[in-house]
Amino acid sequence: MRDRLIFTGQLLFTLLVAAFLVVPAILSISAGVTVNYFRGISSGVTLQWVFQVWELYAGTILLSFVVAFATLVLTLVAGVPAAYALHVRGGRLSRIIEEVITLPLAIPGLAIALALLFTYQGFGDFRRSWLFILTGHVIYTMPFMVRSVMAVFATIDIKTLDEGAASLGATPWRRFRDVIVPNAVPGILAGSLMVVTLSLGEFNLTWMLHTPLTKTLPIGLADSYASMRLEVASAYTLIFFVMIIPLLVAMQMFADQEQKR
Amino acid sequence: MPHRYFVWLCLLPLAVLTVAFFLLPMARLVVTGAEGPQGLAGYLAILVEPRYRATLINTVLLAAATTVVTLVVATVAGMFLQRHRFPGRAVLIAMLTFPLAFPGVVVGFLIILLAGRQGLIGDLSNRMFGEKLVFAYSIFGLFLGYLYFSIPRVILTIMAAVQKLDVGLEEAARSLGAGPWAVQRDVVLPALGPAFVASGAIAFATAMGAFGTAFTLATNIDVLPMLIYTEFTLAANFATSAALSVGLGIIAWAILALARSFSGSTVAAAG
Which site among A2, A16, A21 would you substitute to test the B interface, given the most B Cβ atoms closer than 10 Å to its Cβ? Predict the structure, then answer.
């Protein structure tokens, strides 16, 4: 009897917490397709706000994808070899390097963005281009890629594989390409999902680094929250959800799979 | 090419990116912080200047409150979800973790929809009591926003920790005559200690540095990141904004480093 009561109480509490997280998201989605949110959903369902967002902000959505993809390429090119090097080298220096590249997780994005601004404000063309946003995103997401790949190396005996291939006469580059990278695929995929998801939603850094001509999706969102009617802001948020939720689901499925292994 | 050189070559791209776009800028930030009219003393302003100090205290209190409430909520819900199997459990877990990657601005907007001028809570309270409850733009709205993005992060850590608990210890305690509360208090909660420290530190550091939510809610409550932002853009007070950023960065980093030395696991904040 008492167990039953405790169970029900905990279930109700958990449902309440879930409602707190989900209800606002549902409100936002419904507002994005409602003719007049103030009058409620009875005023009719429409896609006009979604189209309006597309007309006004298509550029930001496009730029977000460009930045996210470029961030992914750079974190792959720099992060995967580095994860391998840090793993095989080991020792004090590797730990220090890992510590340094992980710092951007602890330091608020605003501080990193200000640091980039103070350093590169003299380089006008660079500062005005989307590449400036890219640098911030790369620094912010790099630790996720490196650590996710290193986590895979920690579970397989990469040194033996590497030495085995070496004893057969494979050059370091061939070993890296044909032995190391194929074995690191789960970590590379998990890291890539994380990098793209974080880059698409990044605001703290981007708000400081953007210019009127280089607005990403979250910047456009903040803009619409401040100056557009509620329905447009909601429709814009809806588009963001549609982009980000498949990535989150994929990440969740990936984590479940890893746990079962 | 010997393997040793190849390993160094592997580190090269990361080293170039990190030095050019993180280490050098950070050094520049620290130097800029001391370039104000007060020189190095500018770094003390965060503690000495009454307005900055009040903001710092505000931010720390808000982050601490967020951390404590998030830990309590996430522990109750996380323990329940990890210990029971029932239909709809997977959906419930998905609901509790999906806001993980929402940017702060979106969270701010969701709080406006919940408790803003056209919000659900105001609408309901208007119908029930004839009075419109609007608190999205107050410190309580900000607190709700911080809870919103902290709960999913912390709940995942707590659930993972509960899964690793040794059920045998609880059974032993029960067989020795301990009641359900005593088991929770003396066996389960102490065993979860490292997870509390690790996830609590993430929640605290994230709340200290959160900018997007406060920005969207446009509250008149000063939190440190908003103060840095206004000093930089509106007042063009570059040295002060740099000094405050360095202070904020050190606080957030120190909390995480301290937690890690306690719990032994690696933790990270984001958002």
Answer: A21
